[in-house]
Write a structure and sequence with these properties.
By secondary structure, the protein is mainly α. The protein is built from 2 helices and no strands. Helix content is 94%, strand content 0%. It has one domain. Helix 1 runs antiparallel to helix 2.
Length: 144
């Protein structure tokens, strides 16, 4: 009778270990999904930020045109200001894209790490379950 109780306890411990591994795997899978969403959100934020940059550039250019017209200026200096502003906008957008790419890669790698960690947790749960069964078998053997 004692042997059966020990064997039953070993089976329950093994199942518990396996379940803990599966729960950890699901938690890491969820984390990986959240990282993927963060990766997509970075691209969306970049598009909105670039639209805002373009709008600010257009407003600044329009204000420069109004001020220049009010002061009676036109031609070369106004075109030079416009060209410089456009170049600054382009550089600003390139820097923002590079930063977004780095953030995306970081989020992607975080997701891959979470997926790998989940698989490892599941394997450890399985291994722990097997060890519990083995330990229970050794303990129950003398009573059976």
């Amino acid at each position: 009778m004692v042997g059966y109780l020990i064997a039953g306890q070993a089976i329950l411990s093994a199942f518990n270990s396996y379940q803990q591994g599966q729960i950890s795997k699901e938690a890491f899978r969820h984390d990986a999904a959240m990282q993927a969403l963060a990766e997509k959100q970075i691209g969306i934020n970049l598009a909105f930020d670039n639209a805002k940059r373009k709008e600010q550039y257009a407003e600044t250019l329009a204000m420069q045109n109004v001020l220049s017209a009010a002061m009676g200026r036109s031609g070369g200096s106004l075109e030079a200001l416009s060209s410089t502003g456009a170049e600054n906008l382009r550089k600003d957008m390139e820097i923002a894209k590079s930063n977004a790419d780095i953030s995306r890669i970081s989020a992607m790698m975080g997701g891959e790490i979470a997926r790998a960690s989940g698989e490892t947790a599941a394997r450890m749960g399985l291994l722990g379950g097997g060890l519990e069964l083995l330990k229970g078998g050794v303990q129950a053997a003398p009573y059976l």
